[in-house]
Structures are given as C-alpha cells and as structure tokens.
Design brief:
55 residues, mainly alpha, 42% helix
Length: 55
C-alpha cells in the first residue's frame, strides 16, 4: 500500500511545520495585540440567593 509509505510525506510535513513555526509564526504574532494584565482589583460581589418556587 503506497499511502503508508512515510518516506516522502514525512519530510514534507516536517518541512512545512518547521517553516510555519520558525519563519511565519513570529511575523504573524508581531501583528497581534496582547492585553496587558491590569493592576486594578475587581470589586468583590456577593451572590444573591435564589427564590425557589417549591420551597
């Protein structure tokens, strides 16, 4: 069965994966804006109890 022969396809897959991860990924991630963590604390909210109709 020729489709189980990994000889040409393994090299193609590894080459494309390395190309994407080494060359293209830093270029793409330089365009993305990341949200910096803020030092503000969020106000603590207390949950309100539910009014169950059957109790």
């Amino acid at each position: 069965m020729p489709q189980l022969n990994p000889n040409p396809w393994l090299y193609i897959m590894l080459t494309s994966w390395l190309t994407l991860s080494i060359i293209l990924q830093p270029k793409i991630s330089s365009f993305l804006q990341t949200n910096h963590p803020s030092t503000k604390t969020s106000p603590a909210t207390t949950p309100s109890p539910w009014n169950w109709p059957w109790t």
